[in-house]
Amino acid sequence: MPKSITINGDLIHDIPSFHEEINRIFMAEEDWKIGNSLDAFDDMLYGGFGIIKANESVQLHWLNSENSRKALGFELTQKYYSEKLKAVAYNKKIIEEKLSALEKGTGPTYFEILLEIISEHKNIHLNLY
Length: 129
Hints:
Helix content: 40-55%
Structural class: alpha/beta
Strand content: 5-15%
Strand order of the largest sheet: 1-2-3
Number of helices: 6
């Protein structure tokens, strides 16, 4: 039987609150938390630390996901990339390309990036509510 995990989308208003919710749910039994990065989120989903064991089957329920979709939408993503451009020089071209795609309507929002990351983990089955 798959492990059931629930994310509360009402608690997600921006990137830091997304990571607070993820740490609250996935890292509750650890004495440390994952950082505010997409790579850290992806690593956590592989399991081996936190609530997910390596390759464990998981039913992930994202309650009030539409609130999260709006909060982590276009404007937040545009700001996220703009701030990255100010702070990082080593991958500036990639960030510029992602920002351009977002602004043209062909690039994913932060919420959609999260969904893509989750979908890459075949042991995790996502249900949006």
